[in-house]
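Quick one:
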Amino acid sequence: MFDLLFDPLDVERMTLEKQELVKTYAYLSPESGKYVYSIDNTRFTNHSSTNYNIDIAVDPGETETAGVANRDIEIGEEILVNYKQIDLHDRDSNEEYLL
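Output:
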């Protein structure tokens, strides 16, 4: 309910500015094959390949997965997820920030 979903073919028809916005701030979902552009505070979630505090869980009846805390998270602590688990572009990437 707080995500905008974009079909990759629709993204390719967008202006270059809009394509860049979607491809920079959305992730390509392995579940739906669509770009997921979060409009709630999950957009501030960052990446960690080893010390993430959010796991990915299947939510029956939902199109996309959900993030679930894997431990108590302290006030002010950064929210971290492993991008390789949620983004098809990142899954096989060797980009330095994903290592």
